[in-house]
Design brief:
By secondary structure, the protein is an alpha/beta fold. The protein has two domains: about 5-250, Spore Coat Polysaccharide Biosynthesis Protein SpsA, Chain A; about 255-340. It contains ten helices and ten strands. The protein has helices at about 35-55, 70-80, 95-105, 125-135, 150-170, 185-190, 200-205, 235-250, 255-275, 295-340; strands at about 5, 25-35, 60-65, 85-90, 110-115, 140-145, 180-185, 210-215, 280, 285-290. The strands form two sheets. Strands 1-4-3-2-5-7-6-8 form an eight-stranded mixed beta sheet, with helices on both faces. A two-stranded antiparallel sheet has the order 9-10. β2, α1 (about 35-55) and β3 (about 60-65) form a beta-alpha-beta unit.
Length: about 350
């Protein structure tokens, strides 16, 4: 295998880092791959043709996410013949987000384009996205206006997810699930991706102050292989939305988030105590009960305990952020003084 093909660490699958001293390219294209043996060859040919015609220095980073169908052997063969191709190999399947994060870390371009490896995204749109980015934007999202997918399993879940993501994050993107996007590298270097966060990149970028726009792109039917998406992803999107909401609005002051969560519990606990110790007479008057309601008092105690714990979690999270900021500032000041 040529030096363009790189293997992740055997112990922890850590992604490789671009070797120092190599020339910086203008454009990097990151493509996560999983069991796409029949697609990677035509995809590489189409990408190479489109990028050469675009006229910028480029590299292609294929990330094989633990394929078991011979995809990695095809990638090794292609990388041995193309110095523009770099390959990251995972020993097992980590998911699309981890594959994209590894590709982002390995690439060297000032502009980074991500896309799927199933040939449904059109490589000819890469240049259009980059040109749009250079008009003063930090992120350009592809918008598949005319999707070539099944309605029940792909289109309908995607529309629901796009609606929820727009409402929760405030990033009004028509097609958040489209992997074909162009970024300035600083946006991706500032993010820590996990779970299925790759579909929230635009929203996370907006939280960093990135200027975002979208551009209609072409979408083709899948010609080979099997789709890796299903209805089960809806539930993961819903779970991740909660984390995204907190990251965007409350990351700097988590105590506010936990306070909002605990306030209804703090209000409910006294009500349960009142129901446990006070009763209403037939005349409509309230008076102390001769025997308190054990169930109501127990529920009120548990609710109050949960409310206090939720608030304390927010306090500890706030304290951790403040302390880490203090020590980072202290270290930076010490480093500046030492360099004088």
């Amino acid at each position: 295998m040529s030096r363009a093909a790189e293997r992740a660490d055997a112990e922890n699958d850590a992604p490789p880092i671009a070797p120092p001293g190599e020339p910086v390219v203008q454009l990097s294209v990151v493509v996560p791959i999983y069991n796409e043996r029949d697609n990677v060859g035509p995809l590489h040919d189409a990408l190479t043709y489109a990028l050469r015609a675009f006229g910028r220095s480029y590299e292609i980073v294929f990330v094989d996410d633990g394929s078991r169908d011979g995809t990695r052997d095809v990638l090794r063969s292609i990388a041995a013949q193309d110095p523009h191709l770099r390959v990251v190999l995972f020993r097992r399947n980590h998911g699309q987000t981890a594959a994209m994060a590894a590709g982002f870390q390995a690439c060297r371009g000032g502009i980074i384009v991500s896309m799927d490896g199933d040939l449904q995204n059109d490589p000819a749109d890469v240049g259009r996205l980059v040109e749009r980015l250079e008009q003063g934007y930090d992120v350009v999202c592809g918008w598949r206006r005319h999707r070539q997918d099944r309605v029940a399993t792909r289109l309908l879940p995607s529309k629901i997810a796009n609606f929820l993501i727009a409402r929760v994050t405030g990033a009004h993107i028509h097609d958040t699930g489209c992997s074909l996007k162009a970024y300035r590298s600083w946006v991706l270097r500032s993010l820590n991706l996990y779970s299925d966060m790759h579909r929230f990149l635009a929203a996370l970028g907006a939280g960093l102050g990135a200027r975002i726009t979208e551009l209609p792109v072409r979408h083709h039917p899948r010609r080979a292989g099997v789709s890796k998406y299903g209805l089960g992803r809806i539930f993961r999107v819903l779970a991740d939305l909660i984390g995204i909401k907190m990251l965007i609005q409350f990351a700097a002051h988590p105590i506010r988030w936990f306070l909002i969560l605990s306030l209804p519990l703090f209000a409910l606990a006294p009500m349960m105590f009142v129901l446990g110790f006070v009763k209403r007479t037939r005349e409509g008057e309230w008076q102390w009960a001769e025997r308190y309601d054990m169930a109501a008092v127990a529920v009120g105690s548990v609710v109050l305990l949960v409310a206090v714990n939720v608030f304390l979690l927010g306090f500890l999270a706030e304290l951790q952020i403040k302390v880490s900021r203090f020590f980072r500032q202290r270290i930076s000041v010490t480093a500046r003084e030492a360099s004088r």
